[in-house]
Structures are given as structure tokens and as C-alpha cells.
Amino acid sequence: MEKYSKWRDSGTGIQPFLQPVPARTQQTAFKSVLGAVKSYIVGPVVSVMRLASLALTVVADTITNTIGVLLVVPSIKRKYSQCTRSVLARLALFIMGFYSIDAKTVGLQRGRRSGLKVRKVEVKSGDLIIANHVSYIDVLWLVAKYNPVFVEIDNASSMVQRISMWTALRAPALQTPALLQASNARTLKSVTEEARLNKLGPVVVFPENATSNGRALLRLLPMFEEPENLDEKSQIHVMALKYPAQSFSPAYSVGSQFWHLFVLCCQVYNSLVVRILEQDECPKVKESALFCDADMDPVNLDEAVREKLLQLSRLRMTKLSAMDKRDFLVFYNKRKTGYRSNI
To answer: pTM of the full predicted structure?
Structure first.
């Protein structure tokens, strides 16, 4: 659309913020009628039933969290939280039509000996999970798999603050804050150390700091530019998430989040593909200039993460950033007559 051409990346020609629209195909009259019945009659009924089921999982999460507060032994509390949150998150995904999620560990190195088994990735508390951000569904899958700690990033300083799962789920619908409040900003290292000490799980970083529509990557924030963010004990894990879709896409970048969820639940099934980079190929903090041996060439962690994420996701990198997404949302919402909220 011409009115949004300002946010079309000049280098790639990709518009990464508008919701993906399925390609138009010629259909027979029978298929058109069948599609209309599914979209306007069967789909909404199924969606209402699914949304009611999701509401019950929210109630269950509230109850289990209340019980968890009463537990005083940290190790038991963590195991309890991990079990209940993971089960409920996976149940929520199943209700939304993500019956089977294709998650696999892959290697990128060419010339790998045929038949050589890819080593399974072991993610520990205090490790860093770095992934692209396409939808609030990303958050649910990460909770179901790892029950991690989520952070929000300051666009100027790359300082972070911890946020809850619910805040992370709502974040794609809200304007990315340009700056964090100084009283809440912390170094990434302090968060990973806290997570490791208290066994809170891995720490998830979305370096794009906003959702794209899944067609390209936004410019990544330089998370490792400041030495204060480097934690030598943290392993970096790189992951790429994609949502193959023939009609309505689970990718969410703009518009009403509730309406997106409603239409998503109208579909019979939804697909999510996750590619996890083999641990041996992930960038390592100990190889950065701050920690590497004098006789070794230091690794630029930000550049290494960028390259791995590009290869793993098989997407192109745009020059647009989270701040461009912020400006886009302001313009988009003003254009929508009667638009008041992203709820």
C-alpha cells in the first residue's frame, strides 16, 4: 500500500509491519461456498468455543500461581512453576490449533559428515535464548518449552528490565517504549546471574524488540556492545520461529490482538516451525573480546548472532528498527477510523 511506503525497506523492498495477506487464487464455485461456510459460520462457532477454553486456562494459571506463592522451598517452587506453566501453555497452544509443533535442532556448517548426529541442545537457567519475534505465540511456545524469564530492552542503551509472561504476551500489541525508566533498567548480566542463582530458567531476548510480520528481520539491537551485558557463564542459544500459513497467518504485527486471536481460533489448525541452532555452532560469550585468550581473535557477538539468525531463519535483514515500528503504529492507528485500542 502506497500510504505505508515509508516503512518499506529500501534495500529489500519488503514491508515488515503490515499483516501478511494470502495470495489470491482462482477457486471453483463449490470451493468458494465451502470457504464462506467455514469462514463465516463454522469458524466463528469453533473460535468462541476455543476462546472459552482459553479463558479456563487463564483461570487455572491464576489458581496454580496463587498456590505457588505459598511454596517456600525455591527448588520445589521452581519445579512446580515450570510444570504448571509449561503444561498450561502447551494446552493453550493445542486449543488454538497448534496440535503438533515442528521443533528441531539443526546445524548450519557445510561439509558436515553424513550421518553425524546433531547434538541435542541443553538449555539451563541463566542461559540466553535469542530469537526472532513474529507473534505472541512465540511467547507461549517458549513458556511451554522452557518457562523462561522475559526481558524488555531499552532502545538507546540496550539495558533491560524483567517482564512477566502476561506482559510479554501483550507487548506485540503495544507501542515499544523508546526508553525504559531508569529505576527499572538493569544490565543483561544481572538478569542472567539472578536467573542462574535462583534457577528461574533461561532468559529470552528478542533483539528486534518488536514483532515483524515474519517476512524479514528487523534491525537487531546491539545487545553485547556493552561489556556490562556479557555473562561468561551464559550459553547463547539461537532460535528461529516461522508460521507457515495458506490463509490467515499466526504472525501478528499490527491491529487488534483480540481480533487476531479470534480469527486465528477460527482455523482448523495452525502451524509453527522452530529451528534451534546446534550448540557447537552458537556464538560463545567466552570468545568475545572481554574474555577470549590473548592469542585468539575475538568474536563480535552481535555480528555473530546476526549472521546465525539470518542463516537459521532464512530471512533477509531490513534496515528498519523497533523505533520505526513504533512510528508505523502511530500512523497506522490514526488511519483506522474509529480505532481506539489494540486490545
So the answer is: 0.91
